[in-house]
Amino acid sequence: MSFITGVGLTAFGRHEGASTLDLMSRAAELAIEDAGLKRGEIDGLLCGYSTTMPHIMLATVFAEHFGLQPAYCHAVQVGGATGMAMAMLAHHVVEAGLARHVLVVGGENRLTGQSRDASIQALAQVGHPVYEVPLGPTIPAYYGLVASRYMHEYRVTEQDLAELAVLMRGHAATHPGAQFRDPITVADVMASKPVASPLKLLDCCPVSDGGAAFVISRERTGDVGVRVRGCAQAHTHQHVTAAPALNKLGAEIAIARAKAASGVAISDVRYAAVYDSFTITLLMLLEDLGLAGRGEAAARARSGHFGRDGEMPLNTHGGLLSYGHCGVGGAMAHLVETQLQMTGRAGNRQVKDASVALLHGDGGVLSSHVSMFLERVR
Fold it and tell me: Is the pTM of this model over 0.90?
């Protein structure tokens, strides 16, 4: 058994002069304070990677910088799924008795600490070094290929993809820490600059500076507990040229395993936090996870189903698409928002019922997947 006892999140966007360690430290301090703990009570540390500070021992570098001497310390690196993978590992670490309070932290200064060319070069390395990278594709290009195929198979349109961008921007509008809060329409998305057909600028998450952290403990520290009910992973491929059919990707495997581990059904879920690096990512994952039928996610978004007051509130902070994306910390913000919703602390974003939540992270080009169910206990 484990509980998410504290969360911390910086604003995302531009943080001039702040390093990876600075941003991670700000978020970590907030999470420890939120858990009602002192720094010396943290005996476990999990740290994500940073493209602006690619140290081979970043976890122990951060521990030294932040003033920790943990009994358990580990760095994790599975792309966009890293945040959720660390949450799953922390859950298992405290269940195994290896630590009582595990600090999970990620963040970096991608916007101000890295040039455009360096960022593109770093992210392009997700491709196969022989069969893909030499041809020049970037992350958006890979997802553009996936989008084209998915649109062909399930009659999804570019306007359908745009609905997800509009939804996330609407949610970000009320969060003071979001990088982009100005409202947008489907027409705005359609008119935005082409990036990798059929994806346009507003179909893609921004590059951000920021940090996120949370504490996972063996016992709850507050009046309301957020308990990890069960979690699971799936890894079907690394490179897009080796990917299975679009209806056999890892999200379906991970969610099936997580349901089996937790005893939770999709019909039990009242809040969802789903990775959304691109509109096509979010649309596909919603359908893979069983939150919408094939080809139906956009219609549900259009009808208000995934809105703050809808049947399945989704990414109420604005997600990667509008709150922002600072690497590992970007997806971790989904879990931070979920914990705030489940403890009734989301302010003007608060949903009516977040008693059971589903979270899902995705790394690479739909390569690595982590699904997790959380429940509120009093």
Answer: yes
Ramachandran angles phi, psi of 316, nearest 5°: -70, -10
Between 3.40.1350.10, 1.10.10.10, 3.40.47.10, 3.30.70.2750, what CATH number should domain 3-113+208-217 receive?
A: 3.40.47.10
Q: Return per-residue pLDDT of the chain as tens, 378 residues.
A: 999 999 999 999 999 999 999 999 999 999 999 999 999 999 999 999 999 999 999 999 999 999 999 999 999 999 999 999 999 999 999 999 999 999 999 999 999 999 888 887 888 888 999 999 999 898 999 999 999 999 999 999 999 999 999 999 999 999 999 999 999 999 999 999 999 999 999 999 999 999 999 999 999 998 899 999 999 999 999 999 999 999 899 999 999 999 999 999 999 999 999 999 999 999 999 999 999 999 999 999 999 999 999 999 999 999 999 999 999 999 999 999 999 999 999 999 999 999 999 999 999 999 999 999 999 998
The domain limits of the chain are 3-113+208-217
What single letter denotes the amino acid at residue 324?
Answer: G
Angstrom distance (rounded) from CA 276 to CA 216: 24
